[in-house]
Automatic annotation (TrEMBL):
Domain (Disease resistance N-terminal): residue spans on this chain: 6-93
Entry keyword annotation includes ATP-binding: yes
Gene3D superfamilies in the record: 1.20.5.4130, Ribonuclease Inhibitor
Record-given protein name: Uncharacterized protein
Keyword ATP-binding: yes
Species the sequence originates in: Rhododendron williamsianum
GO molecular function: ATP binding
Length: 374
């Protein structure tokens, strides 16, 4: 409940900030602080409400937050009412002025301005104290969904204990906020359905030395992990799915000495060969490649991935044979190639196919083509 309350307050605050109401009331700084504080609190509310239902201290903190949120709601209602009154008066008397894209309202009621200003400063201080208390609970999870103004805030600077961050459905996000670099304890980062995100800039990844898992799903314009990837020295798992323009890996991937699992599911007609930089990942144990219909072959350097234990390939029907170097993968325990072409399935037939001797040493082998329609 607290999460929805705070989210609604941030939604109500946005138009007031855009119309520079805080400036007119003399509480511009307090209104900006209020928005930032609410964003900071919102960042940990999902963890607080979902994972600490029996923790009395957390529940007391949530009750204080809800009480303060209702106070903020009352203040914003008064501001909105006053704005409507002056908009109506301005439109009828011609006193409403436009400057650029902002509307300047002639707040003539000094008593109102003084009272609202005092209330705003008081509640801003109260919420700041509540926000400061959050650190003692060590909240760790954060989900941000479709809130584009989040990228402009300083909220990430305050989340030094955050362990998991998921950013969903940002319609205008083109790059990650630089504040991401302040998340020194972050272990898992997931970015989903951000249609305009094109890359992960180096500055955005710098400082994420603790990150172990990175997922990028269904970002249609995403095309570059950037050399900033080399800063993720603890990264163990990298998943890229539904990003059809992502067809290469940066040179910095060779510095990822902890990377054990890589998944690339492209749904893409662009990729025709596996990225050559992939051969330099030093400790890779699991590799999954899927939905690249124009991928025509597996490279000979595949045999350089000597630590590989699991290899999965799905939906790449133009691969017609396996490289001889696959015999060098002596640690490989599982090979699964499904929805491949019929020629590859024939060549890998146990005991008969021309390529069977290349994979006979692998304990678990599955190679099949799609069933022919009846």
């Amino acid at each position: 409940m607290a999460l929805s309350l705070v989210a609604n307050l941030l939604t109500s605050l946005q138009p007031l900030v855009e119309k520079e109401v805080g400036l007119l009331l003399g509480v511009d700084e307090e209104m900006t602080k209020l928005s930032s504080t609410l964003s900071t609190i919102e960042a940990v509310l999902e963890d607080a409400e979902r994972n600490h239902p029996e923790d009395r201290a957390v529940q007391d903190w949530l009750r204080k937050l809800k009480d303060a949120a209702y106070e903020v709601d009352d203040i914003l209602d008064e501001c909105s009412t006053e704005i409507l009154r002056w908009e109506s008066k301005g439109q009828s008397s011609g006193s409403l002025k436009k400057v650029g894209t902002s509307l300047l309202y002639p707040f003539e009621n000094v008593k109102f301005r003084h009272r609202i200003g005092h209330m705003m400063k008081e509640i801003s201080g109260k919420l700041a104290a509540i926000a400061d208390e959050r650190d003692k609970f060590h909240f760790r999870n954060m989900v941000v969904e479709n809130r584009d103004e989040f990228t402009k805030s300083q909220v990430l600077r305050n989340l030094t204990l955050l362990k998991l961050l998921r950013i969903d459905r940002f319609t205008k996000l083109k790059s990650l906020p630089n504040g991401l670099a302040h998340l020194k304890a972050l272990k898992s980062l997931s970015i989903n359905f951000c249609d305009k995100l094109k890359s992960l800039p180096e500055e955005g990844l710098r400082g994420l030395e603790s990150l172990q898992r990175l997922e990028i799903w269904y970002c249609k314009e995403f095309s570059s992990l950037s050399e900033g990837l080399q800063h993720l020295v603890c990264l163990e798992s990298l998943e890229i799915e539904g990003c059809p323009k992502q067809v290469a890996l940066p040179e910095g991937v060779k510095h990822l000495k902890s990377l054990q699992s890589l998944t690339m599911i492209g749904d893409s007609d662009v990729l025709v060969a596996l990225p050559e930089t992939l051969q330099h990942v030093p400790a890779l144990q699991s590799l999954s490649i899927a939905s690249y219909p124009k991928l025509t072959s597996l490279p000979d350097w595949l045999g350089n991935l000597t630590t590989l234990q699991t290899l999965t390939i799905f939906g790449c029907p133009k691969i017609s044979s396996l490289p001889a170097s696959i015999q060098r993968l002596t640690k490989l325990r599982s090979l699964s190639i499904t929805d491949c072409g019929p020629e590859l399935a024939r060549r890998c037939e146990k005991g008969k196919g021309e390529d069977w001797h290349k994979i006979a040493h692998i304990p678990q082998v599955e190679v099949n083509a799609p069933a022919k329609p009846k």
